[in-house]
Amino acid sequence: MRIYGDLGSGNCLKVKYIADALGIAYDWTDVISGTGATRTPQFLALNPAGQVPVIALDDGRTLAQSNAILRYLARNSRFIPSDDFLAAKMDEWLFWEQYSHEPCVAVARAHVVYRGGTIADRDPAIVARAEAALDHLDRALDGRSFLVGDTMTIADIALLAYTRLSPEGGFDLRTRPQLLRWIATCEHELGLPALGNAAQQQEQAHG
Ligand SMILES: N[C@@H](CCC(=O)N[C@@H](CS)C(=O)NCC(=O)O)C(=O)O
Question: CA nearest 73: which of 92, 48, 54, 45?
């Protein structure tokens, strides 16, 4: 399998996290978004939507949309509940992530990290939606180790990617203790460095 992705993108990192966690062998091709690399005829042949991540299977079939890729790579694994209702609850979070979390948390971060903007001149409407999304997650994690059931699912992986990077976009996780605890747990489970040490990131972001 080959993964086409950008290691600065949470959508792409999700795919790397699950492939690494499951020990799935892959080759990685950097396709850096915002450089035109997703608009070449070669890339559009892989994903006509012109977005990373994309995976290409050994038989030539391709699959885009990060959460669809997560679902495919994690099939029959411990990261998808065997109980149908819990699997649907996991999907509930995957859809919420794409509609109510990524479009604001990731977009605010992109403004600061990639578009030369500052934390001060982020779009207030996007910031308000992102703050509400982070609060929602924090509340949902109260008394729970993971979002669905008692073990990590791809719902956690999908939401971890951009939540973990959110301090780069100016979001303060220090006021969201459940979120911080969950990030640390997920990082530990996935063998990731403790980027979720948000207190430290916050010092860097706000001085
Ligand atoms: N819903 C898609 C979103 C993918 C997406 O927005 N990818 C961005 C990078 S994070 C991209 O490739 N943008 C095209 C570009 O910048 O050229 C997914 O979850 O995979």
Answer: 54
Answer whether 47 contacts ligand 1 (Cβ < 6 A). no
Look at ligand 1, atom 15, and give the residue with the nearest C-alpha.
Answer: 33
What strands lie across the sheet with 62-64, from one edge to the other? 27-30, 2-5, 54-56, 62-64
The rounded Å distance from CA 75 to ligand 1 centre is: 23
Answer yes or no: do 69 and 92 share one domain: no
Low-confidence ranges of the chain (pLDDT < 70): 196-207
pTM: 0.94
Do 101 and 7 share a structural domain? no
Q: Give tens-digit pLDDT for 103-156.
A: 999 999 999 999 999 999 999 999 999 999 999 999 999 999 999 999 999 999
Pocket flag, ligand 1, residue 34 (CB < 6 Å):
yes
